[in-house]
Protein backbone atom coordinates (compact mmCIF):
# COMPACT_ATOMS: atom_id res chain seq x y z
CA UNK A 1 0.00 0.00 0.00
CA UNK A 2 1.20 3.55 -0.60
CA UNK A 3 2.42 5.12 2.62
CA UNK A 4 -0.12 7.38 4.30
CA UNK A 5 -3.14 6.28 2.29
CA UNK A 6 -5.51 4.50 4.67
CA UNK A 7 -8.26 2.42 3.07
CA UNK A 8 -11.58 2.07 4.86
CA UNK A 9 -14.83 0.28 4.16
CA UNK A 10 -17.53 2.82 4.90
CA UNK A 11 -21.28 2.34 4.39
CA UNK A 12 -20.74 -0.15 1.58
CA UNK A 13 -18.10 1.96 -0.16
CA UNK A 14 -14.36 1.62 -0.38
CA UNK A 15 -12.77 4.91 0.60
CA UNK A 16 -9.13 5.86 0.29
CA UNK A 17 -7.85 8.77 2.30
CA UNK A 18 -4.67 10.75 2.61
CA UNK A 19 -3.21 10.91 6.09
CA UNK A 20 -0.50 13.11 7.54
CA UNK A 21 1.96 10.26 6.85
CA UNK A 22 1.60 10.66 3.06
CA UNK A 23 3.71 13.80 3.37
CA UNK A 24 5.26 13.57 6.82
CA UNK A 25 6.81 10.08 6.64
CA UNK A 26 9.04 8.33 4.19
CA UNK A 27 10.65 4.95 3.57
CA UNK A 28 14.37 4.60 4.20
CA UNK A 29 15.70 3.26 0.91
CA UNK A 30 18.39 1.35 2.80
CA UNK A 31 16.45 -0.35 5.60
CA UNK A 32 13.00 -0.23 3.90
CA UNK A 33 11.60 0.99 7.21
CA UNK A 34 9.11 3.81 7.59
CA UNK A 35 10.71 6.94 9.04
CA UNK A 36 8.02 8.95 10.76
CA UNK A 37 8.48 12.70 10.63
CA UNK A 38 10.84 12.69 7.63
CA UNK A 39 9.35 14.54 4.66
CA UNK A 40 8.25 12.44 1.71
CA UNK A 41 10.45 14.52 -0.53
CA UNK A 42 9.60 12.90 -3.86
CA UNK A 43 5.83 12.73 -3.38
CA UNK A 44 4.13 14.26 -6.39
CA UNK A 45 1.18 15.68 -4.48
CA UNK A 46 0.47 18.22 -7.21
CA UNK A 47 0.01 15.56 -9.85
CA UNK A 48 -2.23 13.50 -7.55
CA UNK A 49 -4.39 16.57 -6.99
CA UNK A 50 -4.44 17.41 -10.69
CA UNK A 51 -5.70 13.91 -11.49
CA UNK A 52 -8.72 14.39 -9.25
CA UNK A 53 -12.04 15.07 -10.97
CA UNK A 54 -12.70 18.30 -9.12
CA UNK A 55 -9.29 19.89 -8.55
CA UNK A 56 -11.10 23.18 -9.09
CA UNK A 57 -12.47 22.85 -5.54
CA UNK A 58 -8.94 23.76 -4.46
CA UNK A 59 -8.65 26.80 -6.71
CA UNK A 60 -7.67 29.16 -3.86
CA UNK A 61 -4.31 27.35 -3.71
CA UNK A 62 -3.68 27.87 -7.44
CA UNK A 63 -2.81 30.99 -9.37
CA UNK A 64 -6.34 32.17 -10.08
CA UNK A 65 -6.24 35.96 -10.17
CA UNK A 66 -10.02 36.27 -10.48
CA UNK A 67 -12.85 33.81 -11.11
CA UNK A 68 -14.31 36.39 -13.50
CA UNK A 69 -11.70 35.44 -16.09
CA UNK A 70 -13.26 32.00 -16.34
CA UNK A 71 -16.83 33.06 -16.94
CA UNK A 72 -17.87 31.94 -20.40
CA UNK A 73 -21.64 32.28 -20.35
CA UNK A 74 -24.31 33.94 -18.30
CA UNK A 75 -26.35 30.74 -18.38
CA UNK A 76 -24.63 29.34 -15.29
CA UNK A 77 -25.80 31.78 -12.64
CA UNK A 78 -26.54 31.70 -8.95
CA UNK A 79 -28.37 34.12 -6.74
CA UNK A 80 -25.62 35.54 -4.56
CA UNK A 81 -25.77 36.62 -0.89
CA UNK A 82 -26.97 40.07 -1.89
CA UNK A 83 -29.83 38.62 -3.95
CA UNK A 84 -28.16 39.47 -7.25
CA UNK A 85 -27.66 37.10 -10.16
CA UNK A 86 -24.00 36.17 -10.44
CA UNK A 87 -22.40 33.95 -13.09
CA UNK A 88 -20.23 30.96 -12.08
CA UNK A 89 -16.93 30.27 -13.85
CA UNK A 90 -16.92 27.71 -16.62
CA UNK A 91 -16.27 24.40 -14.82
CA UNK A 92 -14.10 22.82 -17.54
CA UNK A 93 -12.04 25.94 -18.10
CA UNK A 94 -11.35 26.44 -14.41
CA UNK A 95 -10.62 22.74 -13.89
CA UNK A 96 -8.13 22.77 -16.73
CA UNK A 97 -6.27 25.77 -15.39
CA UNK A 98 -6.13 24.48 -11.82
CA UNK A 99 -4.93 21.07 -13.14
CA UNK A 100 -2.22 22.75 -15.17
CA UNK A 101 -0.90 24.60 -12.13
CA UNK A 102 -1.04 21.63 -9.75
CA UNK A 103 0.68 19.38 -12.28
CA UNK A 104 3.61 21.78 -12.32
CA UNK A 105 4.20 21.73 -8.54
CA UNK A 106 7.58 20.53 -7.52
CA UNK A 107 7.74 17.00 -6.09
CA UNK A 108 7.94 17.11 -2.31
CA UNK A 109 6.12 20.45 -2.29
CA UNK A 110 2.57 21.27 -1.40
CA UNK A 111 0.65 24.55 -1.45
CA UNK A 112 -1.05 24.79 1.90
CA UNK A 113 -1.89 28.49 1.78
CA UNK A 114 -5.09 30.04 0.46
CA UNK A 115 -3.71 33.17 -1.12
CA UNK A 116 -4.87 32.61 -4.74
CA UNK A 117 -1.20 32.22 -5.61
CA UNK A 118 0.78 29.19 -6.73
CA UNK A 119 3.51 29.07 -4.11
CA UNK A 120 3.85 25.49 -2.96
CA UNK A 121 6.43 25.04 -0.21
CA UNK A 122 8.71 22.20 0.75
CA UNK A 123 7.16 19.63 3.10
CA UNK A 124 9.15 20.34 6.28
CA UNK A 125 10.44 17.67 8.60
CA UNK A 126 8.14 17.10 11.56
CA UNK A 127 10.79 16.69 14.20
CA UNK A 128 8.78 19.33 15.95
CA UNK A 129 10.21 19.42 19.46
CA UNK A 130 11.74 22.83 20.08
CA UNK A 131 11.05 23.95 16.50
CA UNK A 132 8.40 26.57 17.29
CA UNK A 133 6.89 28.74 15.90
CA UNK A 134 5.42 26.39 13.27
CA UNK A 135 4.85 26.71 9.54
CA UNK A 136 7.54 28.15 7.27
CA UNK A 137 6.50 31.68 8.17
CA UNK A 138 6.09 30.77 11.84
CA UNK A 139 2.43 31.80 11.99
CA UNK A 140 1.50 29.02 14.42
CA UNK A 141 2.99 30.32 17.67
CA UNK A 142 0.10 30.57 20.12
CA UNK A 143 -1.92 27.92 21.89
CA UNK A 144 -1.02 24.54 23.35
CA UNK A 145 2.42 23.02 22.60
CA UNK A 146 3.75 26.44 21.52
CA UNK A 147 1.57 26.54 18.43
CA UNK A 148 2.02 22.96 17.27
CA UNK A 149 -1.68 22.30 17.91
CA UNK A 150 -2.56 25.45 15.97
CA UNK A 151 -0.61 24.28 12.96
CA UNK A 152 -1.81 20.68 12.95
CA UNK A 153 -5.38 21.91 13.25
CA UNK A 154 -4.91 24.15 10.24
CA UNK A 155 -4.52 21.09 8.03
CA UNK A 156 -8.18 20.17 8.39
CA UNK A 157 -9.80 23.38 7.22
CA UNK A 158 -7.36 25.44 5.19
CA UNK A 159 -5.77 22.38 3.58
CA UNK A 160 -8.39 19.65 3.50
CA UNK A 161 -11.77 21.31 3.25
CA UNK A 162 -12.30 24.27 0.93
CA UNK A 163 -15.92 24.55 2.02
CA UNK A 164 -14.72 25.43 5.51
CA UNK A 165 -13.79 28.87 4.16
CA UNK A 166 -17.22 29.67 2.77
CA UNK A 167 -17.95 32.21 5.53
CA UNK A 168 -14.65 33.98 4.82
CA UNK A 169 -14.64 33.94 1.02
CA UNK A 170 -15.64 37.57 0.67
CA UNK A 171 -12.95 38.83 3.08
CA UNK A 172 -10.12 36.56 1.94
CA UNK A 173 -10.79 36.17 -1.77
CA UNK A 174 -13.30 38.90 -2.64
CA UNK A 175 -15.69 36.16 -3.75
CA UNK A 176 -19.33 36.06 -2.71
CA UNK A 177 -20.16 33.08 -0.48
CA UNK A 178 -22.73 31.63 -2.91
CA UNK A 179 -20.40 31.97 -5.90
CA UNK A 180 -17.66 30.36 -3.80
CA UNK A 181 -19.75 27.32 -2.79
CA UNK A 182 -21.23 27.04 -6.30
CA UNK A 183 -17.76 27.05 -7.87
CA UNK A 184 -16.57 24.25 -5.59
CA UNK A 185 -19.65 22.07 -5.96
CA UNK A 186 -20.57 22.53 -9.64
CA UNK A 187 -17.82 20.12 -10.65
CA UNK A 188 -18.16 17.61 -7.78
CA UNK A 189 -17.16 14.05 -8.64
CA UNK A 190 -19.88 12.51 -6.52
CA UNK A 191 -23.29 13.32 -8.11
CA UNK A 192 -24.82 13.71 -4.63
CA UNK A 193 -22.72 16.83 -4.07
CA UNK A 194 -22.87 18.18 -7.62
CA UNK A 195 -24.57 21.59 -7.72
CA UNK A 196 -26.56 22.41 -10.84
CA UNK A 197 -26.86 26.16 -11.39
CA UNK A 198 -30.12 27.76 -12.43
CA UNK A 199 -32.33 25.71 -10.20
CA UNK A 200 -34.23 27.77 -7.72
CA UNK A 201 -31.80 27.05 -4.98
CA UNK A 202 -28.78 28.86 -3.65
CA UNK A 203 -25.58 26.81 -3.49
CA UNK A 204 -25.60 27.11 0.32
CA UNK A 205 -29.18 25.81 0.48
CA UNK A 206 -28.29 22.89 -1.79
CA UNK A 207 -25.21 22.08 0.28
CA UNK A 208 -27.16 22.20 3.55
CA UNK A 209 -29.32 19.35 2.22
CA UNK A 210 -26.39 17.09 1.33
CA UNK A 211 -23.89 18.18 4.01
CA UNK A 212 -22.35 15.04 5.60
CA UNK A 213 -21.69 17.03 8.80
CA UNK A 214 -24.90 19.07 9.22
CA UNK A 215 -24.72 22.05 11.55
CA UNK A 216 -20.95 22.35 11.07
CA UNK A 217 -19.19 24.59 8.56
CA UNK A 218 -17.65 22.62 5.68
CA UNK A 219 -17.54 18.84 5.29
CA UNK A 220 -14.92 17.92 7.88
CA UNK A 221 -15.68 17.36 11.55
CA UNK A 222 -14.98 20.92 12.61
CA UNK A 223 -16.12 23.07 15.50
CA UNK A 224 -16.61 26.81 15.20
CA UNK A 225 -14.78 28.36 18.18
CA UNK A 226 -16.28 31.45 19.83
CA UNK A 227 -14.55 33.98 17.53
CA UNK A 228 -15.97 32.35 14.35
CA UNK A 229 -16.36 33.46 11.55
CA UNK A 230 -13.32 35.53 12.41
CA UNK A 231 -9.87 33.95 12.66
CA UNK A 232 -7.34 34.19 15.48
CA UNK A 233 -3.78 33.34 16.49
CA UNK A 234 -4.96 29.93 17.68
CA UNK A 235 -7.36 29.29 14.79
CA UNK A 236 -5.85 31.02 11.73
CA UNK A 237 -8.48 29.39 9.52
CA UNK A 238 -11.31 30.16 11.93
CA UNK A 239 -12.15 26.56 12.85
CA UNK A 240 -10.97 23.73 15.07
CA UNK A 241 -11.16 20.08 14.13
CA UNK A 242 -12.85 18.10 16.88
CA UNK A 243 -14.92 14.98 16.35
CA UNK A 244 -18.13 14.34 18.25
CA UNK A 245 -17.36 12.07 21.19
CA UNK A 246 -14.04 13.78 21.93
CA UNK A 247 -13.45 16.96 23.87
CA UNK A 248 -12.79 20.29 22.16
CA UNK A 249 -9.32 20.27 20.50
CA UNK A 250 -8.51 16.93 22.19
CA UNK A 251 -7.34 15.19 18.99
CA UNK A 252 -5.11 18.10 17.98
CA UNK A 253 -3.55 18.15 21.45
CA UNK A 254 -2.95 14.41 21.25
CA UNK A 255 -1.29 14.53 17.84
CA UNK A 256 0.94 17.40 18.98
CA UNK A 257 2.04 15.50 22.09
CA UNK A 258 2.95 12.57 19.85
CA UNK A 259 4.67 14.68 17.17
CA UNK A 260 7.02 16.06 19.81
CA UNK A 261 8.26 12.52 20.47
CA UNK A 262 9.25 11.84 16.84
CA UNK A 263 12.99 11.38 17.01
CA UNK A 264 14.65 9.48 14.19
CA UNK A 265 18.33 8.79 14.17
CA UNK A 266 20.53 10.51 11.60
CA UNK A 267 21.12 8.51 8.47
CA UNK A 268 24.89 8.63 8.62
CA UNK A 269 26.99 6.81 11.16
CA UNK A 270 27.90 8.71 14.31
CA UNK A 271 30.66 11.25 13.80
CA UNK A 272 33.75 10.99 15.88
CA UNK A 273 33.92 13.65 18.55
CA UNK A 274 36.96 15.49 17.21
CA UNK A 275 35.39 15.87 13.80
CA UNK A 276 32.15 17.14 15.31
CA UNK A 277 33.97 19.66 17.46
CA UNK A 278 35.85 20.91 14.41
CA UNK A 279 32.59 21.37 12.51
CA UNK A 280 30.98 23.02 15.48
CA UNK A 281 33.84 25.48 15.66
CA UNK A 282 33.34 26.49 12.04
CA UNK A 283 29.58 26.76 12.58
CA UNK A 284 30.14 29.17 15.45
CA UNK A 285 32.84 31.12 13.68
CA UNK A 286 30.65 31.58 10.59
CA UNK A 287 27.92 33.15 12.73
CA UNK A 288 25.29 30.49 12.08
CA UNK A 289 24.81 30.41 15.83
CA UNK A 290 23.31 33.94 15.74
CA UNK A 291 20.10 32.31 14.57
CA UNK A 292 20.55 28.54 14.80
CA UNK A 293 21.27 28.66 18.51
CA UNK A 294 20.38 26.72 21.61
CA UNK A 295 19.40 23.14 22.24
CA UNK A 296 17.41 22.80 19.00
CA UNK A 297 19.59 24.97 16.77
CA UNK A 298 17.00 27.71 16.44
CA UNK A 299 16.46 30.96 18.34
CA UNK A 300 12.74 30.44 17.60
CA UNK A 301 12.58 33.79 15.82
CA UNK A 302 11.14 34.86 12.49
CA UNK A 303 13.49 36.75 10.18
CA UNK A 304 12.07 39.32 7.72
CA UNK A 305 11.97 37.90 4.19
CA UNK A 306 13.93 40.93 2.99
CA UNK A 307 16.70 40.09 5.46
CA UNK A 308 16.99 36.35 4.85
CA UNK A 309 16.52 37.04 1.14
CA UNK A 310 14.69 33.85 0.18
CA UNK A 311 11.75 33.74 -2.24
CA UNK A 312 9.25 36.16 -0.66
CA UNK A 313 5.91 34.83 -1.92
CA UNK A 314 5.12 32.32 0.87
CA UNK A 315 5.99 34.89 3.55
CA UNK A 316 2.98 36.98 2.54
CA UNK A 317 0.47 34.17 2.19
CA UNK A 318 -1.54 35.01 5.30
CA UNK A 319 -1.70 38.76 4.76
CA UNK A 320 -5.43 38.98 4.13
CA UNK A 321 -6.30 37.37 7.46
CA UNK A 322 -5.70 40.82 8.98
CA UNK A 323 -9.18 41.88 7.86
CA UNK A 324 -10.82 39.13 9.88
CA UNK A 325 -8.52 38.82 12.90
CA UNK A 326 -10.10 38.51 16.33
CA UNK A 327 -8.99 37.78 19.90
CA UNK A 328 -7.68 34.27 20.59
CA UNK A 329 -10.39 32.49 22.54
CA UNK A 330 -11.11 28.78 22.93
CA UNK A 331 -13.65 26.60 24.62
CA UNK A 332 -12.32 25.09 27.82
CA UNK A 333 -10.40 21.86 27.13
CA UNK A 334 -13.00 19.74 28.95
CA UNK A 335 -15.82 20.96 26.67
CA UNK A 336 -17.55 18.04 24.97
CA UNK A 337 -18.24 17.95 21.23
CA UNK A 338 -20.83 18.83 19.99
CA UNK A 339 -20.28 21.99 22.03
CA UNK A 340 -23.17 22.67 24.44
CA UNK A 341 -24.88 26.07 24.50
CA UNK A 342 -23.27 27.57 27.60
CA UNK A 343 -19.79 26.15 27.18
CA UNK A 344 -17.05 27.96 29.06
CA UNK A 345 -14.94 30.30 26.91
CA UNK A 346 -11.30 30.94 27.84
CA UNK A 347 -8.88 33.55 26.60
CA UNK A 348 -5.73 31.90 25.23
CA UNK A 349 -2.58 33.60 26.55
CA UNK A 350 -0.83 35.54 23.78
CA UNK A 351 0.77 38.44 25.72
CA UNK A 352 4.03 36.48 25.88
CA UNK A 353 4.40 36.70 22.09
CA UNK A 354 6.35 39.50 20.43
CA UNK A 355 3.89 41.61 18.39
CA UNK A 356 6.48 42.48 15.81
CA UNK A 357 7.15 38.78 15.25
CA UNK A 358 3.45 38.10 14.72
CA UNK A 359 3.31 40.86 12.12
CA UNK A 360 6.18 39.13 10.29
CA UNK A 361 4.56 35.69 10.52
CA UNK A 362 1.31 36.94 8.98
CA UNK A 363 2.71 39.83 6.93
CA UNK A 364 0.19 42.06 8.69
CA UNK A 365 0.32 45.84 8.45
CA UNK A 366 3.10 47.07 6.19
CA UNK A 367 5.20 43.96 6.90
CA UNK A 368 6.33 41.95 3.91
CA UNK A 369 6.42 38.81 6.03
CA UNK A 370 9.22 36.53 7.12
CA UNK A 371 10.47 33.00 7.61
CA UNK A 372 11.12 31.26 10.87
CA UNK A 373 14.58 30.01 11.75
CA UNK A 374 14.12 26.26 11.43
CA UNK A 375 15.73 23.80 13.79
CA UNK A 376 18.64 21.89 12.26
CA UNK A 377 17.86 18.53 13.85
CA UNK A 378 18.21 15.57 11.50
CA UNK A 379 19.00 17.47 8.31
CA UNK A 380 20.00 14.21 6.63
CA UNK A 381 16.28 13.53 6.11
CA UNK A 382 15.08 16.91 4.94
CA UNK A 383 16.89 17.84 1.69
CA UNK A 384 16.18 19.79 -0.49
CA UNK A 385 16.55 22.87 1.69
CA UNK A 386 14.83 26.21 2.36
CA UNK A 387 11.08 26.76 2.35
CA UNK A 388 10.84 26.53 -1.43
CA UNK A 389 12.96 23.37 -1.51
CA UNK A 390 15.12 25.08 -4.12
CA UNK A 391 18.54 24.15 -2.73
CA UNK A 392 18.93 20.73 -4.33
CA UNK A 393 21.95 18.82 -5.59
CA UNK A 394 21.84 15.15 -6.56
CA UNK A 395 24.12 12.30 -5.47
CA UNK A 396 26.32 12.78 -8.54
CA UNK A 397 26.35 16.56 -8.45
CA UNK A 398 23.16 17.01 -10.52
CA UNK A 399 22.29 20.68 -10.12
CA UNK A 400 19.06 22.22 -8.88
CA UNK A 401 15.58 20.77 -9.08
CA UNK A 402 15.93 20.52 -12.84
CA UNK A 403 18.80 18.07 -12.35
CA UNK A 404 17.17 16.17 -9.46
CA UNK A 405 13.47 15.89 -8.59
CA UNK A 406 12.35 17.04 -12.03
CA UNK A 407 14.10 13.89 -13.29
CA UNK A 408 13.01 11.65 -10.42
CA UNK A 409 16.40 11.87 -8.68
CA UNK A 410 16.19 12.42 -4.93
CA UNK A 411 18.51 15.24 -3.77
CA UNK A 412 21.49 14.25 -1.67
CA UNK A 413 21.67 15.87 1.77
CA UNK A 414 25.45 16.36 1.82
CA UNK A 415 25.69 17.84 -1.66
CA UNK A 416 22.62 20.02 -1.10
CA UNK A 417 24.05 21.37 2.17
CA UNK A 418 27.23 22.27 0.33
CA UNK A 419 25.13 24.26 -2.11
CA UNK A 420 23.46 25.99 0.83
CA UNK A 421 26.74 27.34 2.23
CA UNK A 422 28.95 27.68 -0.88
CA UNK A 423 28.06 30.60 -3.13
CA UNK A 424 29.76 29.14 -6.21
CA UNK A 425 27.68 25.96 -6.10
CA UNK A 426 24.56 27.89 -5.12
CA UNK A 427 24.84 30.18 -8.12
CA UNK A 428 24.76 27.12 -10.36
CA UNK A 429 21.77 25.69 -8.50
CA UNK A 430 19.84 28.96 -8.79
CA UNK A 431 20.68 29.16 -12.48
CA UNK A 432 19.46 25.59 -13.07
CA UNK A 433 16.19 26.31 -11.25
CA UNK A 434 15.69 29.57 -13.14
CA UNK A 435 15.94 27.74 -16.47
CA UNK A 436 12.66 25.96 -15.69
CA UNK A 437 9.61 28.08 -16.49
CA UNK A 438 7.33 26.06 -14.22
CA UNK A 439 9.61 26.44 -11.22
CA UNK A 440 9.70 30.18 -11.78
CA UNK A 441 5.91 30.30 -11.96
CA UNK A 442 5.68 28.31 -8.71
CA UNK A 443 8.03 30.76 -6.90
CA UNK A 444 10.72 28.11 -6.43
CA UNK A 445 14.21 29.58 -6.80
CA UNK A 446 16.63 28.40 -4.10
CA UNK A 447 17.73 32.02 -3.63
CA UNK A 448 18.68 33.79 -0.42
CA UNK A 449 19.98 32.79 3.02
CA UNK A 450 23.38 34.18 2.05
CA UNK A 451 25.39 32.91 4.98
CA UNK A 452 28.45 31.38 3.43
CA UNK A 453 31.12 28.98 4.58
CA UNK A 454 33.25 29.03 1.46
CA UNK A 455 36.67 30.22 0.28
CA UNK A 456 35.38 33.77 -0.35
CA UNK A 457 34.33 33.94 3.30
CA UNK A 458 37.79 32.80 4.34
CA UNK A 459 37.05 29.15 5.01
CA UNK A 460 38.98 26.24 3.58
CA UNK A 461 37.36 23.33 1.78
CA UNK A 462 38.32 21.18 4.76
CA UNK A 463 36.42 23.50 7.10
CA UNK A 464 33.45 23.42 4.75
CA UNK A 465 33.36 19.62 4.83
CA UNK A 466 33.76 19.60 8.61
CA UNK A 467 30.74 21.85 9.08
CA UNK A 468 28.68 19.66 6.71
CA UNK A 469 29.66 16.58 8.73
CA UNK A 470 28.66 18.43 11.87
CA UNK A 471 25.32 19.56 10.44
CA UNK A 472 24.49 16.07 9.23
CA UNK A 473 25.14 14.62 12.67
CA UNK A 474 22.75 16.86 14.62
CA UNK A 475 20.02 15.00 16.41
CA UNK A 476 18.23 15.50 19.70
CA UNK A 477 21.15 13.97 21.56
CA UNK A 478 23.46 16.73 20.25
CA UNK A 479 21.13 19.24 21.89
CA UNK A 480 23.09 19.31 25.07
CA UNK A 481 26.21 20.85 23.60
CA UNK A 482 27.52 21.96 26.95
CA UNK A 483 27.70 18.39 28.11
CA UNK A 484 29.28 17.41 24.83
CA UNK A 485 32.01 20.05 25.02
CA UNK A 486 32.80 19.20 28.59
CA UNK A 487 33.35 15.62 27.57
CA UNK A 488 35.53 16.59 24.62
CA UNK A 489 37.24 19.67 25.98
CA UNK A 490 40.56 19.02 24.39
CA UNK A 491 39.32 18.19 20.91
CA UNK A 492 39.39 21.57 19.17
CA UNK A 493 40.56 25.05 19.66
CA UNK A 494 37.62 26.43 17.74
CA UNK A 495 34.91 25.77 20.29
CA UNK A 496 35.16 28.97 22.24
CA UNK A 497 35.47 31.35 19.34
C1 LIG B 1 -0.06 16.86 1.12
C2 LIG B 1 1.07 16.99 2.02
C3 LIG B 1 0.79 17.20 3.51
C4 LIG B 1 -0.07 16.49 4.33
C5 LIG B 1 -1.01 15.35 3.95
C6 LIG B 1 0.11 17.05 5.65
N1 LIG B 1 1.05 18.04 5.63
FE1 LIG B 1 1.80 19.02 7.24
N2 LIG B 1 2.89 20.22 6.03
C7 LIG B 1 2.92 20.15 4.64
C8 LIG B 1 3.58 21.33 4.12
C9 LIG B 1 3.83 21.66 2.65
C10 LIG B 1 3.93 22.13 5.23
C11 LIG B 1 4.57 23.53 5.20
C12 LIG B 1 3.44 24.52 5.12
C13 LIG B 1 3.88 25.98 5.07
O1 LIG B 1 4.13 26.57 6.13
O2 LIG B 1 3.95 26.52 3.96
C14 LIG B 1 3.51 21.37 6.41
C15 LIG B 1 3.77 21.77 7.72
C16 LIG B 1 3.39 21.07 8.84
C17 LIG B 1 3.78 21.40 10.19
C18 LIG B 1 4.73 22.51 10.61
C19 LIG B 1 6.10 21.95 10.86
C20 LIG B 1 7.14 22.98 11.25
O3 LIG B 1 8.22 22.58 11.71
O4 LIG B 1 6.93 24.19 11.07
C21 LIG B 1 3.11 20.53 11.01
C22 LIG B 1 3.16 20.51 12.53
C23 LIG B 1 2.30 19.67 10.18
N3 LIG B 1 2.51 20.01 8.85
C24 LIG B 1 1.43 18.71 10.65
C25 LIG B 1 0.60 17.94 9.82
C26 LIG B 1 -0.44 17.05 10.33
C27 LIG B 1 -0.74 16.80 11.79
C28 LIG B 1 -1.03 16.49 9.23
C29 LIG B 1 -2.22 15.53 9.20
C30 LIG B 1 -3.41 15.98 9.91
C31 LIG B 1 -0.35 17.02 8.06
N4 LIG B 1 0.61 17.91 8.47
C32 LIG B 1 -0.62 16.63 6.77
C33 LIG B 1 2.40 19.11 3.89
C34 LIG B 1 1.48 18.18 4.34
C1 LIG C 1 19.92 35.74 10.39
C2 LIG C 1 19.55 34.42 10.80
C3 LIG C 1 20.23 33.22 10.18
C4 LIG C 1 21.59 32.96 10.09
C5 LIG C 1 22.75 33.84 10.53
C6 LIG C 1 21.70 31.65 9.50
N1 LIG C 1 20.46 31.14 9.23
FE1 LIG C 1 20.07 29.31 8.48
N2 LIG C 1 18.10 29.82 8.30
C7 LIG C 1 17.53 31.00 8.72
C8 LIG C 1 16.18 31.09 8.23
C9 LIG C 1 15.21 32.23 8.48
C10 LIG C 1 15.96 29.93 7.46
C11 LIG C 1 14.68 29.58 6.68
C12 LIG C 1 14.68 30.38 5.36
C13 LIG C 1 13.68 29.90 4.33
O1 LIG C 1 13.34 28.71 4.35
O2 LIG C 1 13.26 30.70 3.49
C14 LIG C 1 17.18 29.13 7.57
C15 LIG C 1 17.36 27.88 6.97
C16 LIG C 1 18.50 27.09 7.13
C17 LIG C 1 18.64 25.74 6.69
C18 LIG C 1 17.59 24.94 5.93
C19 LIG C 1 16.75 24.08 6.82
C20 LIG C 1 15.70 23.32 6.05
O3 LIG C 1 15.11 22.41 6.66
O4 LIG C 1 15.41 23.61 4.88
C21 LIG C 1 19.89 25.31 7.03
C22 LIG C 1 20.49 23.94 6.80
C23 LIG C 1 20.55 26.43 7.66
N3 LIG C 1 19.67 27.49 7.72
C24 LIG C 1 21.87 26.44 8.09
C25 LIG C 1 22.58 27.59 8.39
C26 LIG C 1 24.02 27.68 8.47
C27 LIG C 1 24.97 26.52 8.28
C28 LIG C 1 24.32 28.99 8.77
C29 LIG C 1 25.67 29.62 8.90
C30 LIG C 1 26.49 29.59 7.73
C31 LIG C 1 23.04 29.69 8.88
N4 LIG C 1 22.03 28.83 8.62
C32 LIG C 1 22.91 31.03 9.22
C33 LIG C 1 18.17 31.97 9.47
C34 LIG C 1 19.54 32.07 9.61
TrEMBL record:
Q: Where is the Cytochrome c domain?
A: 274-475
Annotated InterPro entries: Cyt_c-like_dom, Cyt_c-like_dom_sf, Cytochrome_c_Peroxidase/MauG
Q: Which UniProt keywords apply?
A: Heme, Iron, Metal-binding
Q: Where is the signal peptide?
A: none
Keyword Iron found: yes
Top-rank taxon: Bacteria
What SUPFAM superfamilies does the record point to? Cytochrome c
Q: Name one GO molecular function term.
A: heme binding
Q: Which PANTHER family match?
A: BLR7738 PROTEIN, CYTOCHROME C PEROXIDASE-RELATED
Task: Please identify the protein, giving its name as recorded.
Answer: Cytochrome c domain-containing protein
Amino acid sequence: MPLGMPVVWDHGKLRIGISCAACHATVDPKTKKVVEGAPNNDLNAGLIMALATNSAAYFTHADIKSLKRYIRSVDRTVVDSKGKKSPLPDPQLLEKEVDRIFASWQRGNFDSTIDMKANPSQIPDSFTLGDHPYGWSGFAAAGPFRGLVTFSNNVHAQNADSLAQSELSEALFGIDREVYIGTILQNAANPTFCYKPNRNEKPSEFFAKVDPTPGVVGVNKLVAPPQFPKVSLVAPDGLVVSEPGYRFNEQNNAVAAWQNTVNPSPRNAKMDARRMARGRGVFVQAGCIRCHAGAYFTNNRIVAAEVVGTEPSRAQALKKTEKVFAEAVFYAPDTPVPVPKNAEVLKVPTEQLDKQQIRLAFAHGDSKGGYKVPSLIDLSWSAPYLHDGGVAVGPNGELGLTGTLRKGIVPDARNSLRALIDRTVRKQVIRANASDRQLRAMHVSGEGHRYWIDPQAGFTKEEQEAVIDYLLSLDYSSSNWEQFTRKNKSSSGHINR
